[in-house]
Design brief:
single chain, mainly alpha, MetI-like fold, two-stranded antiparallel sheet, flat
Length: about 300
């Protein structure tokens, strides 16, 4: 039997395979294998000193690490704090990005310079901006507290990054504000709004002017044009931005660690990973928290792509 000569489609399929092979190798090495390895560590009693030991590869798996993590009295509070910080920080950064994009969308002198200033929080080193915020919000040396006390807005300085609750009296109603958590959420929104700003501005510039002209002829007010033309045109970009920001903020460690070290009600799951790994030298429990992070994000992605993205 003679050997069949490969057809053009066979050659194209083989070429596609070899072109995808490097990408698959990178994903396998830097995504799939770390997840499997982390799952393996989370099912073993591994300390920091055992990482080079032979016992690391023994098949003695246990769920003790997950019992320790879920049995922690602070776990529910830490998980709730993580979800609040992630959702509020993501929404705030997108709202600030939307306002900034609408502000510089039109033509006016100095628009290019203002656009560059809006991008500066995102490109500045995180250590520098967290130090600046810590200095500004400091209760003793911070300029914000000094101005508020000097102008009579505050009776005494407020430790924004070290006070868990702030009792606020609004028209006779006592409201407890999570001060430190609110401060880091505000930092999150300010730090990452330029990312949303760039995407929203690019989409705004692609909206045809004819839509706004037709709406103006029909007598639509600026608010009606915004809600019936601008927002529908931006819906796909806004939902994608929320997806990205939620994932990245949920995995954030450096911002909160540099601002509060996870104190005063700002401890999130990533801080818990650090505490288990380098505070208790318990790599197994640290890996278990990391797998919980992975599981929560997987559920979020499932819900997003199953319902939100499908509806859009």
């Amino acid at each position: 039997m003679t050997r069949r000569e490969p057809t053009f489609f066979d050659q194209e399929a083989r070429l596609a395979f070899w072109m995808l092979f490097p990408t698959f190798t990178v994903v396998l090495a830097f995504v799939i294998f770390p997840v499997i390895w982390n799952l393996w560590l989370s099912l073993k009693a591994v300390s920091l000193g055992d990482l080079r030991g032979v016992s690391l590869f023994e098949f003695n798996m246990t769920l003790e690490n997950y019992r320790k993590v879920f049995g922690d009295p602070e776990f529910g509070t830490v998980l709730l704090t993580t979800l609040i910080y992630t959702t509020a920080g993501s929404v705030l950064s997108i709202l600030l990005g939307l306002m900034a994009a609408l502000l510089v969308h039109g033509e006016f002198p100095g628009r290019s310079m203002l656009r560059g200033l809006f991008i500066s929080p995102y490109i500045a080193p995180v250590v520098a901006v967290t130090f600046t915020w810590s200095f500004i919000l400091d209760p003793q040396l911070g300029v914000l507290n000094w101005l508020a006390v000097d102008k009579g807005l505050l009776a005494q300085p407020i430790p924004f990054l070290s006070q868990r609750w702030w009792d606020l009296d609004l028209l006779g109603v006592r409201v407890r504000v999570p001060m430190a958590l609110t401060s880091v959420i505000l930092f999150e929104g300010w730090r990452y709004f330029p990312f949303a700003f760039l995407f929203i501005l690019a989409r705004l510039q692609a909206i045809p002017d004819e839509l706004y002209q037709a709406a103006s002829v029909d007598g639509a007010t600026p608010f009606q044009r915004f809600f019936h033309i601008t927002l529908p045109q931006l819906s796909a970009v806004l939902s994608t931005l929320f997806l990205f920001r939620f994932i990245w903020t949920f995995n954030k460690f450096d911002d909160i660690f540099l601002l509060t070290r996870g104190q005063a009600g700002t401890k999130v799951l990533t801080i818990r990973v650090y505490d288990y790994a380098f505070g208790e030298f318990n790599i197994g429990a640290s890996s278990a928290v990391a797998m919980i992070l992975f599981g929560v994000l997987s559920v979020f992605l499932l819900v997003y792509f199953r319902w939100i993205a499908k509806e859009e």
